[in-house]
Each structure stands twice: as structure tokens, then as C-alpha cells.
Amino acid sequence: MDIVAWNARGLGNPNTTHALKDSLLKFKPSVVFLSETKKKRKYLERLRTKNRFSGSFYVDPRGLAGGLALWWAEGISVSILKESTNFIDILVSFNGEEPWQRTFIYGPPNTAEKHQFWANLHLIRKQTSSKWCIIRDVNIVADQSEKEGGNPINSNQAKWFLDFIDVAGMIELPIK
Q1: Widest Cα–Cα separation across the chain
Q2: Distance (Å, rounded) from C-alpha 85 to C-alpha 117?
Q3: What predicted TM-score, i.e. pTM, was given to this entire model?
């Protein structure tokens, strides 16, 4: 199952929607996760229909910030388990295969919200009995070598992320 996960940083710009369409044509994913859409579901439904995905789920933005969209193709079975402004947690199977739990994440940019965010993810992990995969933009840089310029990374936030990976028994997979 191919997945495209993209921080759209707003889908109101025609160049962004063209870039999305080009990516979808190129990669032909079964599942698409868009974070920071900054758009309500009515607008996103028009995009989904134009791009020929059969299913969808949305978390509307708060004012002009955030917004999540999840689209899936024919043959994909999706059950929404939990959602928040920062994630969509699902159970998904493809053509009747064994279901996997997947959590699509857009981490809070505000430091004040990060602690509760990690607590929520730890709770999801504790309640998970099936195979679990997270697809993420956690808004945290884990190591200074992953960052160019600007302020140094926040070591407390990096520790939260790295502790979560360790405690949850997860490994990072390469992305394209």
C-alpha cells in the first residue's frame, strides 16, 4: 500500500493544488494524508473527487491553522478509531488482508500543546493490539544534524520524541 503524506501548508494556492495533483499522478498512492490543509471539508471534498479517491475523513482547521485530510482508494477498508486536531488514528486493510493500525500525525507547533500530544500517542500505543505504523510530521527535530541554520533544536522536545520511539518499541523507516 503506497501512501503520500504531505504537509500542504495550505491548499488555497493553485500552485499547491497542481503540485498535489502531479504528486498523486506520479506516485499513484492508495492512501493520502494531508496536514496543515487550512481548508474545510467542503473544499477538500472537491479535491478528493477530482483526484478520484473513494473514501475520506477530515479534521477541520482551527481558524486559519491546522486541518487534516485522509483519502483512500477503492479496495481500502478504513475504520476511524480516534481523531484530534493533531492526528487521525485508523485501522486499515487492503483487499481483505490483515488490518494494521496507522496513526497519521501532524504534531502541534506550540510547545504548550506538545506534552499532551505525546501523552495521547502513548495512550494509543498502550491500547494497540495490532501492527502499528505512524506516518508523521511531529514538528520536532530530533538531532541537530537534521537542521540547517536558525536556532538550535529544543533538546527537551527532541527527548520527548526519542523517548516515545524507544518506549513504543518503534523503528524509523526510510521515506521517499
Answers
A1: 48
A2: 10
A3: 0.90
